């Protein structure tokens, strides 16, 4: 099997350009229709006039980035199907977000979710949390833009530089002009393209192989695995790590993340927002399962000639575009449609980040600083937000270009930061909503320690390479030893266990050389004796959960030790807690009323006797 020489053709460029043009046109339309984005409420919250279905698609599109489409398919190709079980966490988490976190934000109706933290704990907690969010999202925007450009340029020949610039400029253009309405509607269009890209691969695979052969080949290649119930936290993917870790990841994204909550607040009622969350769950699950199956299609096609070992590609993120180019590259426009679907994931994720970062910057940083001179007017806030979207868009493009020169270190570091921050942030929101005694000293203590610990685990080295499933080059047209170096050393790629919250998957590959499996096994046995090695070997899926529990427990203990909390506004607490407190208060009132009530039963008996005597006398 020889590497394809197929390059992006004129029709492919036309299809790709059409996708960008349609996305930009949506921004122009909403700039000159409706309220023309003149108020902060319309620009950031779409005047709460959106319908449920566009918001549901947008929630999914923001979660499923371009890295997801490339990474999940690669995950099933290299590691098997165990990752699919994370979808169980989605259905468990959806009601938690719907009925615990979302009602609190709807009662407050704040443009920034971090305003809640100021009302509940204080200004310091709000600023600390919003700064952590701003840092992770700023870094992540560049990664989401750079990673697919790198993977696609190497296989399709499309210019990496121009793809980064084009996607970044178009995304910034429609986000700044059309505001949240343009972002939401564009997400629907881009979601459809994401499905088209994935199902093009699936359709071609079913046509060439057939579903029975795909699963047979996957089973023979040890790719079918669903019930890894190992309790060892060092196991990369198990039912426990994906299930429990997935719950914390999902809740941190949909429950307290500015980008997602801001989308939900574009709906005019809590019931509609809850409906949007419920609807996005099956959409998300279908795309996740479909992308996973696409990974099995890739394995069925390449099981006898691994593209990485045969030097057809340099990174496993290039597997999916390589398959499209090799099997459908002779069909004009198909490669362009596929690239459009992949970059649609980048557009939807980056646009949500731009909009949310602008909202946080205005509400959490600039507004409070200028408060002494009077609050920002609605017009000033809106204009400032538009300028900030453009500024963050330029920063996004800049980070994407810097990333290509920095190598894998920055990529992995940025993704680790993104995942490690989610657990502690979720913990302080949860602490505030369900613990009446929690205060700012506890919240800040927990947040700082939680972040330090999760960063330590995420960055600690050495990390053991994950157990990649076996691959073969036996059916390559060239010599089967093409995957071997001159000294007979087998070179293969492994993925570093890096947390990536929006996709919960590994991104980059590091090349590892093993000359003797026995030596490797002995080294691993020696390293297991080290406490630090065991700590660093903990699966990336547990990092968010670990950060949550450290932050929550420490925050609660410190709060109790420092006098507890004196803020008792009902709207700041979870609904179930408020109801329980109200029911208890009602029961106490009833008991107090009963205790103070005069017992009139003796008087009633006396009057009844008098009535009987009067009746006898009358007779």
Topology:
Elements (H helix, E strand, L loop, with lengths): L9 H22 L8 H6 L6 H12 L2 H13 L8 H22 L5 H7 L2 H34 L3 H49 L2 H10 L18 H16 L3 H7 L5 H33 L16 H10 L5 H36 L8 H29 L1 H27 L5 H20 L30 E6 L13 E6 L2 H11 L3 H6 L6 H19 L13 H22 L4 H18 L1
Antiparallel strand pairs: 1-2
Helix pairs in contact: 1-8, 1-14, 3-8, 3-11, 3-12, 3-14, 4-12, 4-14, 5-10, 5-12, 6-7, 7-8, 7-14, 7-15, 7-16, 8-12, 8-14, 8-15, 9-12, 10-16, 10-20, 11-14, 13-14, 14-15, 16-17, 16-20, 17-20
Describe this structure in words.
The structure is a single chain. By secondary structure, the protein is mainly alpha-helical. It folds into two domains: 45-471 and 532-561, Sodium/glucose cotransporter (Up-down Bundle), CATH 1.20.1730; 575-618, no CATH class. It is built from 22 helices and two strands. Strands 1-2 form a two-stranded antiparallel sheet. Helix 5 (87-108) runs parallel beside helix 10 (239-254), helix 8 (160-208) packs across helix 14 and helix 16 (408-434) runs antiparallel to helix 17. The protein is globular.
Give a short synopsis of this structure.
This protein has 619 residues and is an all-alpha fold. It contains 22 helices and two strands.
């Amino acid at each position: 099997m020889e590497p394809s020489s197929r390059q992006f053709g004129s029709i492919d460029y036309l299809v790709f350009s059409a996708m960008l043009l349609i996305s930009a046109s949506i921004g122009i339309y909403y700039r000159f229709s409706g309220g023309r984005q003149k108020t902060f409420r319309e620009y950031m919250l779409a005047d709460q006039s959106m319908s449920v279905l566009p918001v549901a698609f947008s929630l999914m599109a923001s979660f499923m980035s371009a890295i997801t489409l490339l990474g999940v398919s690669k995950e099933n190709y290299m590691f098997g199907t165990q990752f699919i079980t994370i979808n169980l966490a989605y259905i468990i988490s959806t009601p938690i977000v719907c009925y615990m976190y979302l009602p609190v934000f709807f009662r407050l109706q704040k443009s920034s979710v971090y305003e809640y933290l100021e009302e509940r704990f204080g200004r310091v907690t709000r600023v600390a949390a919003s700064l952590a969010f701003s840092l992770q999202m700023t870094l992540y925007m560049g990664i989401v833009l750079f990673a697919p450009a790198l993977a696609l340029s190497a296989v399709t020949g499309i210019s990496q530089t121009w793809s980064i610039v084009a996607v970044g400029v178009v995304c910034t253009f429609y986000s700044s002009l059309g505001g949240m309405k343009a972002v939401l509607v564009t997400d629907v269009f881009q979601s459809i393209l994401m499905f088209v890209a994935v199902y093009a691969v699936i359709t071609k695979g079913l046509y060439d192989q057939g579903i029975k052969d795909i699963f047979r080949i996957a089973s023979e290649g040890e790719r079918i695995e669903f019930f890894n119930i190992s309790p060892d936290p060092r196991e990369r993917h198990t039912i426990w790590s994906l299930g429990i870790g997935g719950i914390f990841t999902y809740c941190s994204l949909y429950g307290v993340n500015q980008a997602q909550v801001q989308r939900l607040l574009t709906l005019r009622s809590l019931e509609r927002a809850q409906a949007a969350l419920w609807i996005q769950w099956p959409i998300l699950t279908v795309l996740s399962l479909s992308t996973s199956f696409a990974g099995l299609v890739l394995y069925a096609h390449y099981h006898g000639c691994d593209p990485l070992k045969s030097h057809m590609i340099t990174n496993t993120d290039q597997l999916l575009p390589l398959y499209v180019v090799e099997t459908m590259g002779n069909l004009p426009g198909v490669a362009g449609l596929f690239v459009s679907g992949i970059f649609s994931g980048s557009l939807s994720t980056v646009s949500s980040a731009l909009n949310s970062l602008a909202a946080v910057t205005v509400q959490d940083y600039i507004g409070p600083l200028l408060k002494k001179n009077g609050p920002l007017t609605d017009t000033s806030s809106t204009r400032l937000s538009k300028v900030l979207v453009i500024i963050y868009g330029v920063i996004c493009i800049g980070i994407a270009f810097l990333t290509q020169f920095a190598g894998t270190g920055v990529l992995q570091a940025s993704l680790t930061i993104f995942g490690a921050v989610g657990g502690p942030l979720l913990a302080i929101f949860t602490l505030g909503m369900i613990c009446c005694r929690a205060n700012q000293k506890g919240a800040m203590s927990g947040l700082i320690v939680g972040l330090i610990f999760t960063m330590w685990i995420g960055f600690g080295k050495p990390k053991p390479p994950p157990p990649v499933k076996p691959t073969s080059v036996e059916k390559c047209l060239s010599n089967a030893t093409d995957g071997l170096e001159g000294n007979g050393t087998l070179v293969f790629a492994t993925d570093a266990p890096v947390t990536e919250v929006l996709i919960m998957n590994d991104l980059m590959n590091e090349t590892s050389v093993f000359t003797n499996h026995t030596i490797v096994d002995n080294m691993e046995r020696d390293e297991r004796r080290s406490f630090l090695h065991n700590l660093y070997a903990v699966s990336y899926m547990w990092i968010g959960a670990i950060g949550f529990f450290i932050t929550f427990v420490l925050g609660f203990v410190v709060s109790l030790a420092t006098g507890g909390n004196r803020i008792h506004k009902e709207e700041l607490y979870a609904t179930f807690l408020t109801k329980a407190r109200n029911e208890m208060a009602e029961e106490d009132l009833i008991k107090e009323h009963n205790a103070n009530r005069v017992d009139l039963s003796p008087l009633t008996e006396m009057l009844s006797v008098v009535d009987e005597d009067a009746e006898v006398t009358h007779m």
